[in-house]
Amino acid sequence: MKRIIFAVLLLGLVIPAIAGAELADKTRVAALAGNVGLAMVKMMNEPSNTSFEVFKTPDLAVGKLIAGEADIAGLPTSTAAIMYNKGVAVQIAAIIGWGVMYIVGNDHSIKRWTDLKGKEIYVSAKGAISDILLRYLISKNGLDPERDVKIQYIASSVELAQLVAAGRVQLAAMPEPWVTEVLEKSPQLKVVLDFQKEWQRLEKQGTAYPQTCIVVRKKFVEEHPEAVRGFLRELKDSIDWVNRHPQAAGLLGQKYVQIAAPAVENGLGRTNLRFDEAFKVRTAIGLFFQRLLEFSPDSIGGKVPDAGFYYQP
To answer: Is-above-0.85 flag for pTM?
Structure first.
């Protein structure tokens, strides 16, 4: 999270120096390895006037977007809020991922969140959304995440998955596709708790939290509105195709966005890919931001973004 905020502030200083003419004949997209990129694999595999660059971490995609070297990016929704609140001229166009977090372990006595009391649980990246959501859900179930649960941090989801699969970690909060990867390697493990279902229960919502999104540069929207509309149409079609064809999507996921094909095929039902225009689900986005603001203000840049944050065709 700190790396993203630093990138936004640093690159924001040089925007006037690098701003130049737009490329009208090519839409440049910064995607993330993993589930964000998975939403786009059908588009990546077809010839078009859209180019894709896939990054392992959000801060690299943020840098491309701020520098004007990408027109559209797939990012965590909280990252989009930070950019907007720090003065970067971007808008949120769509939500593409409705939560991918689960608690995996071999302790089958855990049936509800209150059963985590006294447990040691591992999560990647302290201060990241996965950590914030874990502590938020624990606290909403009447436990103190600082005293009642021992939370341990691992640098990355990849490293955490390796430790879980090796039996060195007994309980972990993890995202897909790594959940499926460790379940396939270790049959004694199972999903014991579901972040998405708990969010819906606590917030009395019919859907989970809007975890990942599509962000567009406002200048690109203004100069090439049809390119933006066309991209969003194709993206919706790509997500629908991925959900209907898990085996084929797995092959493309392995080819383009660094996900093992079996993890896509067997874990797609837990990936919760769905396309929604952002302005149509503004209430759900606003609720998510409000909860993050209450629990960790820095995670969205200190305030809930205003109406100007939302792209509307």
So the answer is: yes
For residue 120, the surrounding DSSP H or E stretch is strand 120-124
Q: Is the CB of residue 192 less than 8 Å from the CB of residue 142?
A: no
For the domain bounded by 2-99+209-309, which CATH number is listed?
Answer: 3.40.190.10
Spell 130-152 as b/e; 16+ CB within 10 A means b: bbbbbbbbbbbbebebeebbebe
* CA atoms within 13 Å, Cβ hemisphere of 253: 30
pLDDT digits (tens, 9 = 90+) for 20-52: 444 457 999 999 999 999 999 999 999 999 999
Interval 96-109: pLDDT, tens: 999 999 999 999 89
Is-contact 97 36, C-beta < 8 A?
yes
Return d(Cα 239, Cα 237) in angstroms, integer.
Answer: 6
Q: Domain 101-203: what homologous superfamily?
A: Periplasmic binding protein-like II (3.40.190.10)
Q: How many angstroms separate the CA atoms of 240 and 222, rounded?
A: 28
